[in-house]
Amino acid sequence: MITVHHLNNSRSQRIIWLLEELALPYEVKRYERDPKTMLAPPALKAVHPLGKAPVITDGSVTIAESGAIVTDLIEQAGGERLIPPPGTEERRRYTFWLHFAEGSAMPPLVMALLFGEIPKRMPALIRPIGRMINAGVQKGFLRPTLEAQMAFMQAELAKGGWFAGADFTAADVMMSFPVEATQASIGLASHPGLQDWLSRIHDRPAYQAALRTGGPYAYAAKGEQPEK
Ligand SMILES: N[C@@H](CCC(=O)N[C@@H](CS)C(=O)NCC(=O)O)C(=O)O
């Protein structure tokens, strides 16, 4: 039996969702973030040395890293479901988005979060300097990067409706967290194509079932927030 080690409000939500889409048997072990630091509890380090979510275990097998877990689960499900056939343009697109999600889309989102924390954690006297550093990096680098990513993702989705083409695949599952995190960070108001895609994934019965299993998930809000 696959166990998903699930941290609240985290990337492990999409692993529960994928398991629901594939109808593979699994169980969930929940971990709660420290409300102050937002870090995972030490118990997750007992499962995997990095102590981050997601991790899956099954007997003696332990797998960390979302993309590696998604690849393994697709193989376990027979290697044909939610993945385009090898040698096709759709398969190349699938592989691209599977890597893009954590390799390119997430780093600027994490940086935007961390730089936003800098002024909050500085002594009041020098906080204005922290605010200046944050504003400079957000405006000069992070915002343009996020804007370019949103435009690119929307243009690619317009080609077939889903990230790999005309069919929903596990690439859409991988891309859910970056798009949800973009919505939470700067909003998607100027990108209706991304909002539409987000609404379509949120409406999927398997996504809804995963929410019931995974517990409260702050990123599941529909995409109608105004852009910040
Ligand atoms: N690239 C990794 C990122 C893992 C990661 O950073 N997970 C976050 C949750 S979204 C985490 O565990 N954060 C808590 C911590 O760092 O203590 C993946 O996709 O699995």
**SSE order, one letter for each helix or strand:** EHEEEHHHHHH
Tally of strands: 4
Put simply, the count of helices is 7
Shape: globular
- Spatial sequence of strands, sheet with the most strands: 2-1-3-4
Multimeric status of the protein: single chain
For the termini, the CA-CA separation is: 43 Å
Measured by DSSP, the beta-strand proportion falls in 5-15%
**Radius of gyration (Å):** 18 Å
Query: What is the arithmetic mean of pLDDT?
Result: 95
Query: What are the distinct ligands in this entry?
Result: glutathione
**Main sheet, how many strands, which sense, barrel?**
4 strands, mixed
Helix share bin: 40-55%
- Low-pLDDT stretches are none
What does this structure look like?
It is a single chain. With 228 residues, the protein is α+β, with helices and mostly antiparallel strands. The chain has seven helices and four strands; from the N terminus they run βαβββαααααα. The protein has a four-stranded mixed sheet with strand order 2-1-3-4, covered by helices on one side. It starts with a strand and ends in a 14-residue tail after the last helix. Glutathione binds at residues 7, 10-11, 39-40, 51-54, 65-66, 102.
How is the topology of this model organized?
Blueprint: E1 2-7, H1 12-22, E2 26-31, E3 55-58, E4 61-64, H2 66-76, H3 89-120, H4 127-160, H5 170-185, H6 192-202, H7 205-214
Parallel strand pairs: 1-2
Antiparallel strand pairs: 1-3, 3-4
Helix pairs in contact: 1-2, 1-5, 1-7, 3-4, 3-5, 4-6
The protein binds glutathione.
